[in-house]
Amino acid sequence: MILVGIGGAVGAASRYLAGIWIGKKTGTKFPYSTLFINIAGSFLLGILTGMKLSQGIPEWCWLLLGVGFCGAFTTFSTFGYEAIQLFLSKQLKKAYLYITASTIICTISAYIGILIIT
Question: Residue 25's domain spans which residues?
Fold first, then answer.
């Protein structure tokens, strides 16, 4: 439990800082920060999953990085909130693009991460 908490704290802080940095770089109303963070986190979780399945990384490493860090770094709740905000502001094309891109690219990123290791 402690390892999940430590990983989660580092993941949440990393997400916050990455979100600020990406937001400054993109400067648009489209939620690129969350999209890029979720893609990177999905890829990393794919790598860790591949390592867990094929090489048997220690349980402590999985709890710290897979469950804790990746769990806090990526965020489905922010994704959902931002998608709803796009719908409410009548930016339907952006909302559909965001939902589609997030779902497809994050899934593919996780799969590529698994394939790299296995």
Answer: 2-117
